[in-house]
Design a protein that fits this description.
single chain, mainly alpha, 2 domains, 5-stranded mixed β-sheet, 5 strands, 61% helix
């Protein structure tokens, strides 16, 4: 392939991703209103932007570090806060990620593999959801891709000092990803560590020094912000949501880290929506096949079987070596394995398979067995690994198309993708019922043509068969990607495909507009926090619609204790807070599910009880509002 042709194809891929991902992006509204409210606050207050505060007066942060909100907040500050100004930067990160994936794959596996990897990445449905969303997953994945790119640069050099520099930049990429979603950013670390230990062109001492450089870069690039938070007096910054002790370190290691991975509960608020002591509540039980179940399957499972087939066959081809002589029995077996290992790491495509296949396998295993609070969209961290593995494996097989392993291997990859697509499309039989049959028939036809040597007949037939195989392999994923950009994706647990959630679990649908009378009261208030409420689920829609600061007393889950009851009473008396709002629906649920004796003491519950005891309420739609500026009940 000529350089000019490669560049034109690459430009076409990036242009297509840009157009598709920006298509009617405002239909997604605030996506996750929890994070959108924090972006709104960051557009009004630099302090809120830096700390990731939920409200512009910096009462409490969101439940993640601020890094995942910074780009959206800057865009909102420059262009004004809106759905578009918030979400367009996320979509552009998809373009940038695809470009970096292409560059990384190309360096080891060639231009065709690079182009295919960029295209496949953008066609994995979870990417078209999360890179058009206000959750911090898009910038986290971008940071992980940066780390993979610079690791590839280090693998490509024979200068030790230059390699150390590239690995420092790789560490900085993971550090940035850590500032978006803490320990989830480390999902890619095992793959990067293994490929560097196995394939870097240096002795063990040099490798160790370069890996230590990367580790130091991770600590510095993520730790500077956490240190800044720790050194800022608690009275001068917002309370760290869901940390239990107002510490970003506890949040990172506990609530966002080991609690989720191992299922322990450090008391960081896991139980806010049915998790915590009760275990997984969003996406089924841990297990080897979890990724193929529930909503996460529609997000990411389409190409996983094909990627695994491509990975295994790619390893077989790239580790080929000359026959081992002068050995028998177990010695011969060991000699063969050693020879294959040396051939594998000497082959740039083999190294690429270790990197991207390692990314796929490590993230798959960790997410599949994650004990607690696994959300389907976490699978966005798998997307680059799937794309890179598919691309490298397919190109390696294509280069061996004159051999049986190439022909049958390409047919196997095609059938694996088509059958998985058929299974997933069958789970939603009312949507495009004809599509799965078209893809299945086309996949069988392509597989037969591949196994019968159709690629060897003529250039025109070769292009036709390859185009058919790609189309049917990616057909289901393409269909869901199109559905994702033409269907509103609103809420914290947005799904892939044409289905719009019909419940409000975890923000599953757009919030209802406020009663105009209530909105007017809030906008006319001169209080520092015109409204206080138990948690951010109730607070976010109010703040987003009125552009008025809202105090979420207990943070995201309602379990945090940033203030005391007496402090809140003082706030009502000096006019710091004017109204208290509670969701009538949540109040009814509280009556049905009373607080357990072993639950930790919640100041938000004490405040709610105090307000209900001392003040009268007025209902505005789904909200019950107490006017704290008026006289208390006699």
């Amino acid at each position: 392939m000529s350089r000019t042709r490669e560049r034109l194809i690459f430009a076409a891929i990036l242009l297509t991703i840009t157009v598709v991902y920006l298509w009617n992006i405002s239909q997604n509204g605030w996506s996750n209103s929890f994070y959108a409210a924090a972006v709104q606050s960051g557009s009004q207050s630099w302090k809120a932007w830096f700390f990731g505060s939920f409200d512009p007066h910096n009462y409490v942060t969101v439940d993640k570090p601020a890094g995942g909100l910074w780009l959206m907040g800057l865009s909102a500050r420059i262009f004004g806060f809106s759905s578009a100004s918030m979400l367009i930067p996320e979509a552009l990160l998809a373009v940038a990620s695809a470009a970096l994936i292409r560059a990384a794959v190309k360096r080891l596996a060639g231009p065709q593999a690079g182009l295919l990897a960029a295209a496949v990445f953008a066609l994995i449905p979870v990417v078209s959801v999360m890179f058009r969303h206000s959750n911090p997953d898009a910038p986290m994945v971008f940071g992980m891709v940066i780390a993979a790119y610079f690791t590839t640069r280090a693998l490509n050099t024979e200068r030790s000092r230059e390699a150390a520099g590239w690995m420092a930049l790789a560490g900085a990429g993971i550090g940035f990803a850590f500032l978006c979603k803490t320990l989830e950013a480390l999902l890619v670390a095992p793959a990067l560590l293994v490929v560097y230990v196995l394939a870097a062109k240096f002795g063990w001492k040099a490798k160790l020094a370069q890996l230590l450089t990367a580790a130091v870069a991770v600590v510095v690039s993520s730790g500077w912000w956490m240190l800044a938070v720790a050194l800022t007096p608690a009275a001068s910054r917002p309370y760290v949501d869901n940390s239990t002790d107002n510490s970003e370190w506890t949040l990172a290691v506990g609530y966002n880290g080991l609690d989720r991975l191992l299922g322990s509960d450090s008391g960081g608020g896991m139980g806010g929506y049915g998790g915590g002591r009760s275990g997984p509540s969003f996406s089924g039980q841990p297990g080897l096949f979890r990724i193929f179940e529930d909503d996460q399957a529609f997000h990411v499972a389409w190409l996983i079987p094909a990627a695994l087939v491509a990975l295994i066959l790619g390893f077989v081809i790239t580790s080929r070596t000359a026959e081992v002589a002068d050995a028998t029995g177990w010695r011969r077996m060991v000699a063969v394995l050693v020879a294959r290992y040396r051939a594998l790491i000497a082959n740039p495509a083999g190294v690429a398979l270790i990197l991207w296949g390692g990314w796929l396998v490590s993230t798959y295993v960790i997410l599949a067995y994650m004990k607690q609070q696994f959300h389907p969209y976490y699978t966005s961290a798998m997307a680059p690994g799937i794309a890179g593995t598919i691309a490298v494996g397919v190109v390696v097989l294509w280069e061996k198309r004159s051999e049986a392993i190439g022909r049958y291997g390409l047919a196997a990859v095609t059938l694996a993708a088509v059958i998985m697509g058929w299974v997933l499309l069958r789970r939603d039989p009312a949507w495009l019922p004809w599509l799965r049959w078209v893809l299945l028939v086309g996949g069988i036809a392509a597989a037969v043509a591949l196994t019968l040597g159709g690629l060897q007949r003529s250039a025109r037939l070769r292009v036709g068969i390859a185009t058919l195989a790609l189309a049917v392999s990616l057909g289901g994923s393409i269909a869901f990607t199109i559905a994702n950009v033409t269907t509103p994706k609103v809420g914290g647990l947005s799904t892939s495909g044409p289905v719009v959630p019909d419940d409000d679990k975890f923000g599953g649908r757009a919030p209802k507009p406020l009663d105009p009378k209530l909105a007017a009261l809030i906008k006319d208030s001169d209080a520092r926090w015109p409204v206080a409420t138990t948690n951010t689920r109730t607070a976010a829609p109010i703040q987003l619609e009125t552009n008025a600061p809202v105090m979420a007393i207990g943070g995201f889950s309602g379990r945090d204790n940033p203030i005391t009851l007496q402090q809140f009473i003082d706030y009502t008396r000096d006019g710091t807070v004017e109204f208290y709002a509670e969701s009538a629906k949540d109040k009814d649920k509280q009556k049905e599910q009373p607080q357990k004796d072993d639950d930790s003491k919640r100041v938000a519950d004490e405040i709610q009880k105090w307000v209900e005891t001392h003040y009268s309420s007025t209902d505005y739609g789904d909200l019950r509002v107490f006017d704290l500026s008026g006289p208390p009940k006699p």
